[in-house]
Design goal:
It is built from 14 helices and 17 strands. By secondary structure, it is an alpha/beta fold.
Protein backbone atom coordinates (compact mmCIF):
# COMPACT_ATOMS: atom_id res chain seq x y z
CA UNK A 1 0.00 0.00 0.00
CA UNK A 2 1.34 3.42 -0.97
CA UNK A 3 1.59 5.61 2.14
CA UNK A 4 3.87 8.34 0.73
CA UNK A 5 2.76 11.10 -1.63
CA UNK A 6 5.26 13.08 -3.74
CA UNK A 7 4.63 16.15 -5.87
CA UNK A 8 6.95 17.52 -8.56
CA UNK A 9 6.00 20.89 -10.10
CA UNK A 10 7.51 21.43 -13.55
CA UNK A 11 7.70 24.50 -15.77
CA UNK A 12 10.64 25.27 -18.03
CA UNK A 13 13.49 22.85 -17.42
CA UNK A 14 16.67 21.53 -18.98
CA UNK A 15 15.69 18.10 -20.32
CA UNK A 16 18.84 16.45 -18.97
CA UNK A 17 18.19 17.83 -15.48
CA UNK A 18 14.58 16.65 -15.73
CA UNK A 19 15.67 13.17 -16.81
CA UNK A 20 18.05 12.87 -13.84
CA UNK A 21 15.48 14.20 -11.36
CA UNK A 22 12.63 11.96 -12.53
CA UNK A 23 14.74 8.82 -12.64
CA UNK A 24 16.14 9.49 -9.17
CA UNK A 25 12.59 9.51 -7.81
CA UNK A 26 11.32 6.54 -9.84
CA UNK A 27 14.26 4.35 -8.74
CA UNK A 28 13.87 4.84 -4.99
CA UNK A 29 14.52 1.90 -2.65
CA UNK A 30 11.14 2.50 -1.03
CA UNK A 31 8.61 1.98 -3.83
CA UNK A 32 5.23 2.41 -2.15
CA UNK A 33 4.44 5.96 -3.16
CA UNK A 34 2.22 8.05 -5.39
CA UNK A 35 4.11 10.46 -7.62
CA UNK A 36 2.13 13.45 -8.87
CA UNK A 37 3.86 15.48 -11.59
CA UNK A 38 2.24 18.85 -12.29
CA UNK A 39 3.12 20.50 -15.57
CA UNK A 40 2.59 24.19 -14.86
CA UNK A 41 2.23 25.45 -18.43
CA UNK A 42 5.43 23.64 -19.40
CA UNK A 43 6.50 23.62 -23.08
CA UNK A 44 5.71 20.54 -25.23
CA UNK A 45 9.23 19.11 -25.12
CA UNK A 46 9.11 19.04 -21.31
CA UNK A 47 5.72 17.31 -21.26
CA UNK A 48 6.92 14.83 -23.86
CA UNK A 49 10.00 13.97 -21.79
CA UNK A 50 7.84 13.38 -18.69
CA UNK A 51 5.48 11.12 -20.67
CA UNK A 52 8.42 9.21 -22.15
CA UNK A 53 9.97 8.50 -18.74
CA UNK A 54 6.83 7.71 -16.75
CA UNK A 55 4.50 5.84 -19.13
CA UNK A 56 3.57 2.48 -17.67
CA UNK A 57 4.43 3.36 -14.08
CA UNK A 58 1.18 3.11 -12.14
CA UNK A 59 2.58 5.19 -9.28
CA UNK A 60 2.69 8.27 -11.50
CA UNK A 61 -0.19 10.65 -12.15
CA UNK A 62 0.60 13.40 -14.69
CA UNK A 63 -1.44 16.60 -14.43
CA UNK A 64 -1.07 19.10 -17.28
CA UNK A 65 -2.03 22.72 -16.64
CA UNK A 66 -2.17 24.80 -19.80
CA UNK A 67 -1.35 28.08 -18.06
CA UNK A 68 1.68 28.80 -15.92
CA UNK A 69 0.45 30.06 -12.52
CA UNK A 70 3.54 29.65 -10.34
CA UNK A 71 5.01 26.97 -8.13
CA UNK A 72 2.55 27.47 -5.25
CA UNK A 73 -0.55 26.73 -7.33
CA UNK A 74 1.22 23.81 -8.97
CA UNK A 75 2.08 22.34 -5.56
CA UNK A 76 -1.44 22.86 -4.29
CA UNK A 77 -2.84 21.13 -7.38
CA UNK A 78 -0.69 18.10 -6.65
CA UNK A 79 -1.33 17.97 -2.92
CA UNK A 80 -5.07 18.52 -3.31
CA UNK A 81 -5.06 15.38 -5.45
CA UNK A 82 -3.02 13.42 -2.90
CA UNK A 83 -5.10 14.46 0.12
CA UNK A 84 -8.01 12.41 -1.28
CA UNK A 85 -6.16 9.13 -0.63
CA UNK A 86 -6.79 7.87 2.90
CA UNK A 87 -3.82 5.52 2.79
CA UNK A 88 -1.31 8.33 2.32
CA UNK A 89 0.28 9.38 5.61
CA UNK A 90 3.47 11.18 4.54
CA UNK A 91 4.07 13.96 2.04
CA UNK A 92 6.99 15.64 0.30
CA UNK A 93 7.76 17.52 -2.87
CA UNK A 94 10.75 17.46 -5.15
CA UNK A 95 12.28 19.77 -7.73
CA UNK A 96 12.78 18.96 -11.39
CA UNK A 97 16.50 19.81 -11.35
CA UNK A 98 17.72 18.07 -8.19
CA UNK A 99 18.92 14.49 -7.77
CA UNK A 100 17.56 12.30 -4.97
CA UNK A 101 19.57 9.43 -3.50
CA UNK A 102 17.99 5.98 -3.60
CA UNK A 103 17.35 6.01 0.15
CA UNK A 104 15.79 9.51 0.15
CA UNK A 105 12.19 8.39 0.73
CA UNK A 106 13.13 5.44 2.91
CA UNK A 107 15.21 7.42 5.40
CA UNK A 108 12.79 10.34 5.73
CA UNK A 109 9.78 8.03 6.09
CA UNK A 110 11.53 5.90 8.71
CA UNK A 111 12.24 8.99 10.79
CA UNK A 112 8.55 9.89 10.82
CA UNK A 113 7.32 6.32 11.38
CA UNK A 114 9.71 5.65 14.27
CA UNK A 115 9.69 9.13 15.80
CA UNK A 116 7.41 10.58 18.47
CA UNK A 117 3.85 11.40 17.44
CA UNK A 118 4.41 15.13 17.89
CA UNK A 119 7.22 15.15 15.29
CA UNK A 120 5.48 16.16 12.09
CA UNK A 121 8.38 17.33 9.91
CA UNK A 122 11.76 15.72 9.31
CA UNK A 123 14.59 17.04 7.17
CA UNK A 124 18.09 15.98 6.24
CA UNK A 125 21.31 17.46 5.01
CA UNK A 126 22.20 17.56 1.30
CA UNK A 127 25.10 18.13 -1.05
CA UNK A 128 25.48 21.02 -3.48
CA UNK A 129 26.16 20.53 -7.19
CA UNK A 130 26.70 22.97 -10.06
CA UNK A 131 25.05 22.98 -13.48
CA UNK A 132 27.40 20.18 -14.62
CA UNK A 133 26.63 18.01 -11.61
CA UNK A 134 30.01 18.63 -9.99
CA UNK A 135 30.08 18.84 -6.20
CA UNK A 136 30.65 22.34 -4.85
CA UNK A 137 30.56 23.98 -1.41
CA UNK A 138 31.19 20.57 0.09
CA UNK A 139 34.65 21.06 1.56
CA UNK A 140 33.21 20.66 5.03
CA UNK A 141 29.96 18.73 5.03
CA UNK A 142 30.20 18.37 8.79
CA UNK A 143 30.04 22.16 9.19
CA UNK A 144 26.97 22.34 6.97
CA UNK A 145 25.34 19.53 8.94
CA UNK A 146 25.99 21.46 12.14
CA UNK A 147 24.49 24.61 10.61
CA UNK A 148 21.26 22.73 9.89
CA UNK A 149 21.02 21.18 13.35
CA UNK A 150 18.96 23.80 15.16
CA UNK A 151 15.92 23.90 17.45
CA UNK A 152 12.51 24.66 15.97
CA UNK A 153 12.54 28.16 17.46
CA UNK A 154 15.52 29.12 15.28
CA UNK A 155 13.39 28.69 12.17
CA UNK A 156 12.02 32.16 12.85
CA UNK A 157 15.40 33.64 11.91
CA UNK A 158 16.93 31.13 9.49
CA UNK A 159 15.56 28.79 6.85
CA UNK A 160 17.83 25.83 7.54
CA UNK A 161 15.46 23.02 6.53
CA UNK A 162 16.54 23.14 2.91
CA UNK A 163 15.38 20.85 0.10
CA UNK A 164 15.29 17.40 1.69
CA UNK A 165 12.21 16.92 3.87
CA UNK A 166 9.02 14.97 4.54
CA UNK A 167 6.02 15.73 6.73
CA UNK A 168 2.92 14.05 8.09
CA UNK A 169 -0.35 14.44 6.23
CA UNK A 170 -2.25 14.73 9.53
CA UNK A 171 -0.45 18.02 10.30
CA UNK A 172 -0.59 19.29 6.72
CA UNK A 173 -4.38 18.94 6.87
CA UNK A 174 -4.47 21.50 9.71
CA UNK A 175 -3.17 24.35 7.53
CA UNK A 176 -3.75 25.83 4.10
CA UNK A 177 -1.45 25.07 1.19
CA UNK A 178 1.47 26.94 -0.34
CA UNK A 179 1.08 30.55 -1.42
CA UNK A 180 3.73 33.10 -0.33
CA UNK A 181 6.11 33.08 -3.29
CA UNK A 182 9.06 33.18 -3.56
CA UNK A 183 9.37 31.82 0.01
CA UNK A 184 6.46 29.41 -0.25
CA UNK A 185 8.34 26.50 1.35
CA UNK A 186 9.76 28.51 4.26
CA UNK A 187 6.43 30.17 5.03
CA UNK A 188 4.75 26.74 4.89
CA UNK A 189 7.25 25.30 7.41
CA UNK A 190 6.50 28.15 9.79
CA UNK A 191 2.75 27.49 9.67
CA UNK A 192 3.24 23.72 9.85
CA UNK A 193 5.46 24.01 12.93
CA UNK A 194 2.71 25.90 14.73
CA UNK A 195 1.26 22.39 15.16
CA UNK A 196 4.19 19.97 15.34
CA UNK A 197 7.85 19.46 16.21
CA UNK A 198 10.73 18.82 13.82
CA UNK A 199 13.58 16.32 13.67
CA UNK A 200 16.89 16.54 11.85
CA UNK A 201 18.63 13.65 10.06
CA UNK A 202 22.36 14.51 9.91
CA UNK A 203 23.17 12.77 6.65
CA UNK A 204 23.00 13.74 2.97
CA UNK A 205 20.04 12.33 1.04
CA UNK A 206 20.14 14.35 -2.18
CA UNK A 207 22.09 16.68 -4.47
CA UNK A 208 20.81 20.25 -4.66
CA UNK A 209 21.60 22.00 -7.93
CA UNK A 210 22.78 25.52 -7.08
CA UNK A 211 21.44 28.39 -9.24
CA UNK A 212 19.92 26.15 -11.88
CA UNK A 213 18.98 28.43 -14.85
CA UNK A 214 15.22 28.16 -14.27
CA UNK A 215 15.32 28.17 -10.46
CA UNK A 216 14.16 30.86 -8.03
CA UNK A 217 17.72 31.30 -6.75
CA UNK A 218 18.89 32.07 -10.29
CA UNK A 219 16.17 34.71 -10.66
CA UNK A 220 17.35 36.42 -7.47
CA UNK A 221 20.94 36.74 -8.61
CA UNK A 222 21.80 40.15 -9.97
CA UNK A 223 18.26 41.55 -9.65
CA UNK A 224 17.67 44.23 -7.02
CA UNK A 225 13.91 44.02 -7.60
CA UNK A 226 13.78 40.25 -7.17
CA UNK A 227 15.95 40.39 -4.04
CA UNK A 228 13.69 43.01 -2.48
CA UNK A 229 10.65 40.95 -3.39
CA UNK A 230 12.19 37.86 -1.78
CA UNK A 231 13.28 39.78 1.34
CA UNK A 232 9.85 41.32 1.84
CA UNK A 233 8.16 37.92 1.67
CA UNK A 234 10.82 36.35 3.91
CA UNK A 235 10.37 39.00 6.60
CA UNK A 236 6.58 39.02 6.21
CA UNK A 237 6.50 35.26 6.85
CA UNK A 238 8.46 35.73 10.09
CA UNK A 239 6.38 38.74 11.12
CA UNK A 240 3.09 36.90 10.63
CA UNK A 241 4.40 33.89 12.54
CA UNK A 242 5.41 36.01 15.52
CA UNK A 243 1.97 37.59 15.49
CA UNK A 244 0.31 34.15 15.46
CA UNK A 245 2.49 32.99 18.33
CA UNK A 246 2.10 36.30 20.21
CA UNK A 247 5.87 36.88 20.24
CA UNK A 248 6.51 40.61 20.77
CA UNK A 249 9.27 42.63 19.14
CA UNK A 250 12.53 42.54 21.10
CA UNK A 251 14.34 45.54 19.62
CA UNK A 252 13.28 49.01 18.47
CA UNK A 253 15.63 50.63 15.94
CA UNK A 254 15.45 54.41 15.79
CA UNK A 255 16.85 55.78 12.54
CA UNK A 256 16.67 59.60 12.23
CA UNK A 257 17.33 60.85 8.69
CA UNK A 258 17.82 64.50 7.72
CA UNK A 259 18.36 64.10 3.97
CA UNK A 260 18.14 61.38 1.37
CA UNK A 261 21.33 59.94 -0.12
CA UNK A 262 22.59 56.70 -1.63
CA UNK A 263 24.22 55.94 1.71
CA UNK A 264 20.86 56.35 3.46
CA UNK A 265 19.21 53.86 1.10
CA UNK A 266 22.05 51.34 1.40
CA UNK A 267 22.06 51.59 5.20
CA UNK A 268 18.29 51.16 5.30
CA UNK A 269 18.62 48.01 3.22
CA UNK A 270 21.52 46.83 5.40
CA UNK A 271 19.16 46.89 8.39
CA UNK A 272 16.49 44.99 6.46
CA UNK A 273 19.06 42.37 5.38
CA UNK A 274 20.17 41.56 8.93
CA UNK A 275 19.76 37.92 9.95
CA UNK A 276 18.26 39.02 13.26
CA UNK A 277 14.67 39.96 12.45
CA UNK A 278 12.74 40.49 15.68
CA UNK A 279 12.80 44.27 15.59
CA UNK A 280 10.67 47.19 14.52
CA UNK A 281 12.30 50.04 12.65
CA UNK A 282 11.23 53.63 13.17
CA UNK A 283 12.32 55.93 10.36
CA UNK A 284 12.20 59.51 11.72
CA UNK A 285 12.08 61.70 8.63
CA UNK A 286 13.51 65.15 9.36
CA UNK A 287 13.60 66.32 5.73
CA UNK A 288 11.55 69.40 4.79
CA UNK A 289 9.06 67.74 2.41
CA UNK A 290 9.13 64.09 3.54
CA UNK A 291 11.47 63.23 0.69
CA UNK A 292 13.11 60.48 2.74
CA UNK A 293 9.80 58.78 3.52
CA UNK A 294 8.61 58.87 -0.08
CA UNK A 295 11.79 57.19 -1.29
CA UNK A 296 12.20 54.54 1.41
CA UNK A 297 8.51 53.56 1.34
CA UNK A 298 9.23 52.14 -2.12
CA UNK A 299 11.37 49.49 -0.35
CA UNK A 300 8.71 47.74 1.69
CA UNK A 301 9.07 45.82 4.93
CA UNK A 302 6.30 44.90 7.40
CA UNK A 303 8.36 45.97 10.44
CA UNK A 304 8.97 49.55 9.33
CA UNK A 305 7.03 52.63 10.43
CA UNK A 306 7.61 56.18 9.15
CA UNK A 307 7.26 59.37 11.16
CA UNK A 308 7.65 62.87 9.76
CA UNK A 309 9.23 65.60 11.89
CA UNK A 310 10.21 68.17 9.25
CA UNK A 311 13.14 70.43 10.14
CA UNK A 312 13.47 69.03 13.67
CA UNK A 313 16.86 68.08 15.14
CA UNK A 314 18.46 64.67 15.59
CA UNK A 315 17.90 64.91 19.34
CA UNK A 316 14.20 65.72 18.75
CA UNK A 317 13.98 62.59 16.64
CA UNK A 318 15.73 60.48 19.28
CA UNK A 319 13.42 61.72 22.00
CA UNK A 320 10.37 60.98 19.85
CA UNK A 321 11.68 57.49 19.09
CA UNK A 322 12.64 56.72 22.69
CA UNK A 323 9.20 57.80 23.90
CA UNK A 324 7.68 55.40 21.35
CA UNK A 325 9.98 52.46 22.18
CA UNK A 326 8.22 49.62 24.01
CA UNK A 327 10.70 46.78 23.53
CA UNK A 328 13.40 45.47 25.91
CA UNK A 329 16.19 46.93 23.73
CA UNK A 330 16.58 50.02 21.55
CA UNK A 331 19.26 50.68 18.94
CA UNK A 332 20.02 54.31 18.15
CA UNK A 333 21.04 53.93 14.53
CA UNK A 334 23.33 56.26 12.68
CA UNK A 335 24.57 55.66 9.17
CA UNK A 336 27.44 53.15 9.10
CA UNK A 337 26.43 52.06 12.60
CA UNK A 338 26.57 48.34 11.86
CA UNK A 339 29.54 46.52 10.30
CA UNK A 340 29.01 44.81 6.94
CA UNK A 341 28.34 41.41 8.54
CA UNK A 342 24.68 40.44 8.24
CA UNK A 343 24.68 39.09 11.79
CA UNK A 344 25.94 42.36 13.35
CA UNK A 345 22.64 43.16 15.05
CA UNK A 346 22.29 39.57 16.26
CA UNK A 347 25.73 39.80 17.85
CA UNK A 348 24.90 43.01 19.73
CA UNK A 349 21.78 41.34 21.15
CA UNK A 350 23.65 38.10 21.95
CA UNK A 351 26.28 39.98 23.94
CA UNK A 352 23.51 41.48 26.05
CA UNK A 353 22.34 37.94 26.81
CA UNK A 354 25.86 36.87 27.76
CA UNK A 355 26.34 39.88 30.04
CA UNK A 356 23.11 39.12 31.88
CA UNK A 357 24.76 35.89 33.06
CA UNK A 358 27.72 37.80 34.50
CA UNK A 359 26.10 40.95 35.90
CA UNK A 360 22.86 42.01 37.51
CA UNK A 361 20.26 42.87 34.86
CA UNK A 362 20.18 46.59 35.70
CA UNK A 363 23.96 46.98 35.64
CA UNK A 364 24.29 46.83 31.84
CA UNK A 365 23.31 49.92 29.85
CA UNK A 366 24.40 49.21 26.25
CA UNK A 367 26.51 47.21 23.83
CA UNK A 368 28.39 48.63 20.85
CA UNK A 369 31.07 47.90 18.29
CA UNK A 370 34.32 49.21 19.76
CA UNK A 371 35.62 50.57 16.44
CA UNK A 372 32.86 53.19 16.63
CA UNK A 373 34.02 54.31 20.09
CA UNK A 374 37.80 53.90 20.35
CA UNK A 375 37.97 56.33 23.28
CA UNK A 376 35.50 54.41 25.45
CA UNK A 377 37.13 51.87 27.74
CA UNK A 378 34.91 48.81 27.97
CA UNK A 379 35.26 46.58 31.06
CA UNK A 380 35.48 43.65 28.69
CA UNK A 381 35.62 43.13 24.92
CA UNK A 382 34.01 40.31 22.97
CA UNK A 383 35.68 39.19 19.75
CA UNK A 384 33.14 38.42 16.99
CA UNK A 385 33.29 37.88 13.23
CA UNK A 386 31.91 41.43 12.80
CA UNK A 387 34.45 43.09 15.10
CA UNK A 388 35.03 43.65 18.80
CA UNK A 389 31.97 44.44 20.93
CA UNK A 390 32.18 46.35 24.17
CA UNK A 391 29.61 47.40 26.73
CA UNK A 392 28.85 50.22 29.12
CA UNK A 393 27.50 49.93 32.62
CA UNK A 394 24.60 51.92 33.98
CA UNK A 395 26.76 53.69 36.52
CA UNK A 396 28.96 55.09 33.73
CA UNK A 397 26.18 56.32 31.43
CA UNK A 398 25.31 60.01 31.63
CA UNK A 399 24.58 60.92 28.00
CA UNK A 400 22.74 59.36 25.09
CA UNK A 401 25.13 58.16 22.37
CA UNK A 402 24.19 57.04 18.87
CA UNK A 403 25.29 53.67 17.49
CA UNK A 404 24.66 51.79 20.72
CA UNK A 405 22.13 49.07 21.58
CA UNK A 406 20.60 50.16 24.89
CA UNK A 407 18.36 48.55 27.40
CA UNK A 408 15.25 50.60 26.75
CA UNK A 409 14.53 51.35 30.41
CA UNK A 410 18.03 52.82 30.78
CA UNK A 411 17.62 54.85 27.60
CA UNK A 412 14.30 56.31 28.75
CA UNK A 413 15.91 57.48 32.00
CA UNK A 414 18.76 59.10 30.07
CA UNK A 415 16.24 60.78 27.78
CA UNK A 416 14.40 62.30 30.72
CA UNK A 417 17.67 63.55 32.20
CA UNK A 418 18.70 65.24 28.94
CA UNK A 419 15.53 67.36 28.79
Amino acid sequence: MADVGIVMPVYKQDLNYLDLALNSVLKQDYENFYFIIVSDGAPPEVNNKITELTTGDNRVHFIIKEKNEGVSKALNTGFDFLMKFDEIEYLTWVSSDNIYFQNFIKKLREALVNGPEEVGLVYSSFRHIDHDGKHILNEDLLAFRKFQEKPKESLLDLCYIGTSFMYKKIYASKIDGYFMEPVEDYEYWLRLTDHCDIKYIPTELMDYRVASPHSISAQLQGSVYQHRRWRYAFNLAKHQTRNRRTIPFEVTIIFPVQQLSEVTVSQYEHILNQSYSNYKLLIIDLSPRAKVSRALKQISDPRVAFFELPNKSIMDAIKFGVDSADTPYTLLFKELCLPLALDSLALLVDIHYQLMKEFQYNEIASTFFIDDFPDIISPKAFKTNAGFIGFSQTCNQSNITLNQLYKTNVLKKLSVRSN
